[in-house]
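Support reply, case 0932

Customer input (verbatim):
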Amino acid sequence: MNSLNILVWNCRGVGNSAFKRNMRELISTHKPERLILMETKVPFSSMGNYFNNMGFTAATIVDTIGRAGGIWLLWDTAHVSIRASHATNEVIQATIHKEDYEEWILSAIYASPHPSQGDELWNNLEETTRSMEKPWLVAVDFNDYTNHNERRSFSPHYNHNRTQKFAERINNCMHPSTPTSRPFRFEAAWLCHPSFSDVVKKSWTNMDSNLVEAINGFTHDVKNWNKEVFGNVYKRKRNLLARIEGIQKSQTHGFSHNLHLLENNLIKQYNMTLFQEELIWFQKSKVKWLTMGDRNTKFFHISTLNKCRKLKINMIKDNAGNWLSNSENIKNHIIQYFNDLFKHEVTPMLDNWKSITHTGFTQDNNVTLQAPITNHEIWNAIKNIKAFKAPGRDGLQAVFFHQNWNIVGPSMCNFVKQCFSTQTIPEETITKVIVNRFRPLLSDLISPNQSSFIPGRTTTDNIIITQDIIHTLRSKKGKTRGSLKLNTDGSSKRDPSQSGYDGLLREEVDTWLWSHHGYLGNCTSLEAELWGLYRGLTIIMQKRMANTELETDFQLAMQLIKDGADSSCPYRALIEDANFLLRRCNCNISYIPSEAN
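Our regenerated output:
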């Protein structure tokens, strides 16, 4: 059955027997899988059983307002899956999926006959046109006309401005002023085609090892090759299956050796096409734990839909607390956020961490780190990138370089070496090279207490050490005042801005026992300092470490915790809690300059 087997009817009322007779005849003749009925004039509840009996067991409904309007989208769930994404009194927009066919968008529109009420509808249509990336079908009754010849009326009145405005809006939707093209994405299924390597070789020939020009040439060539040679996997699968079925039917009437050989060849092509289809959905779904081979494209498809649904941003709140729903505003807000996040700022240092470690790189280590980059290092970095990890700006995933390294390797190596010589780090391959150089030195540089992100160490290694530390801390509860010291600090880039705190518990002989730290988000440096003290006091009470000396380099924070805050202070609750813990644990707090903290 054709994937576009859809019936659209402005029926002008569905509650009469003539409609039912005509509807039954249309369904019997054309066998549609989807129905769009407009200007229904009655509520859907009065016709639900009729359509269920006709096989249309699912529907998205915009009911009438009085006896005006009404849009019904109905479908047969045994043949097609439809997910409505948007519905108003004039529009139903839905995503259509049918097995073996590309996903597409359907918009059913019944516009108000009053022109003054159509501005919002047209604005939404023009915005959707600019952002639409999938195939899109619009089934519409605009209740308007583009010229006088389309008008059927006994009234002599003719509004030329209305006609011109409607024609301009149609033109804007058909030819948007700011067209958007889908970004290039490498398809892993291309690797299965015997002529794909020829496309890669052609793009990398006579490029003088210039990676950027080679990739641009490959992108252009492979798009044309995909249309002219590789083609649509889903159409090819249907055609092959139809040819195989035709041969098998013919063989029942009389055996032909040539047809038998052709059938075997077509079956091989069909199996390869199934594998290519599986690769396409596997690549889209990014399911890493499932081994390919069962051709469960339905599973991959559902995984892809779920992933897209979870990752889609419909609304986002800006810094002022306003919700943004327009796609252009959302994009600009995200770009601005990352521009602010990564712009250069003077970051305040937490001084009390400077003396914790005395390790560093030796002269031999520096010689190793500064040695020229080799081709073998670059290839190892490429191999360490997972094959189907998210592509870069060029749309190429690591699997492309893995499979075609003998062709693209020289230009990639030259490009990476050039980036190191010019001190620019534009892509993941280069960061992988740097990581691989640092990795052998980390065990000498990182403290043995750090167990995460270091090869050969796991978080579970520190469980026994942690238990010993807790036992040691609990055994110190009988010591006199001053036997333990807690140094805390808080920092903020600006006041207020992104802030954090940390603290270090040690003995007077400078033995490091415990540390804590935290990220607060947007707050003042005073609030960050108060949170550092409060968190430290909480740990002291939990570990029963009474008689501890607290030291801070923020005199105002110390004074507020000792003396309390008045009712107008915004941190009153936090200060009162810290003061309670200070008295409960029998601790003392004192000011110490930042140089000594």
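We compared this against your earlier run and they match. Two observations from our side: Confidence is low (pLDDT under 50) at residues 288-296, 478-482. The first helix runs from residue 17 to 30. Please reopen the case if you see a mismatch on your end.
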